[in-house]
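Homework-ish question, so no full write-ups if that breaks the rules, but can someone show me the predicted structure for this set?
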Amino acid sequence: MTSRPGNVNVRRLAGYRKADPGTQPEYNYPPYASTVRRSPSQPLVVLPTTLSEVTGPLFGWDRLKANDHDLTRQGNGEPIGERIIVSGRVLDGNGRPVANTLVEIWQANAAGRYPHKIDQHNAPLDPNFPGAGRTLTDEHGRYRFVTIRPGEYPWRNHYNAWRPAHIHFSLFGPAFATRLVTQMYFPGDPLMDDDPMFNSIPDERARRRMISHFDWETTIPETALGYKFDIVLRGRDETPMENYLPAR
Amino acid sequence: MHTTSSQTIGPYLHIGMTWLADENMAPEGVAGERVTVEGRMTDADGTPVNDAMIEVWQANALGKYAHPEDARDIPLDARFSGFGRVFTDADGRFRFHTIKPGDVPGADGEPQAPHLNITIFMRGLLKHLITRMYFPGDVHDADAVLRRVPAHRRATLIAREGAPGKLEWNVVLQGDNETVFFEY
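A: Not a homework solution, just the prediction itself:
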């Protein structure tokens, strides 16, 4: 047994709560064909709460460049498309802001084309739109991106399949346990009804929470429409399990 | 508050994710036993997965995580963040260079066998996979996490010795020798 000083005092760690039923997708979801051969078939093994789960990588401003949050200023000129402001808050499951956490986004250009070698969609590339950005949340958990509204695009999942307009989001939060990759959708997009990815979430209210809201407050006159998208990371119990009192 | 639903990282992940990718997690000067982990990722048909992202999170050589939650009085290594991000190539292969972590306490305070915490993202995964990689030659029978894993599947989590300084660890998403995946 190790008797290193750091290991002598056992500190019980508060754990992270499971998601509410129906709010997360299953691995195997046949309407999204690629899941069928890539999803685990064996039962998952439940990890206990250890330092490995409640710690995770933290990133600072030193990793970012000044315009990383502005996807309209990464080329030599302005990208084609409708400028938008995408902003919101990153909260933990207890409603508290998650400060100083990395938010990474990427998206198609206004024509629905990604500057990626495997994207063969016959729509124009935009040399002024690399399509990726990143920022950190502030002390109130707020983030803000300037970008252009992404176009819808076809994919080969089923006959006449089209992805609704979306922006990919990647977040770390405070711990290995809070890692989240998701997609933000736009209000009123008729393609959401038939999109297997959007509909992989069984709970209707959870699906709706992936849709951003048009927002006058963040709309800049004569410049850009504002969309708000709040993200909630997994919540943590307030106290370790041993002291946990069941709800009455 | 309801946790935001997970969605797939999709096929164009590289556009947003490459800037933070680095095969070398342990630059010169980082203390610890250097290892290169190499492997191949395959799906249920044995087809190489050519569009996956693997993220690694680990403690330093003394078993300390670079994170405020790890409040133990153990030194950090200023050049070692403990984080790595790599992609699989056209043949499903991946590789990263790091150091073997020290042991970190488990839920009962007993040391866990040294391990890397791994997340895997790809087109076709609506939410990421969570797994661990353990090191050959360590005592694994007493590890509280490995004891939760059916004995005949534990080997999928333990890397094999390769050439000197190299470890081989493959990921099988589904089927025979399916890698053990965790939930938390």
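Now go work out the reasoning yourself. Hint: Chain B touches chain A through 81 residues (CB under 8 Å).
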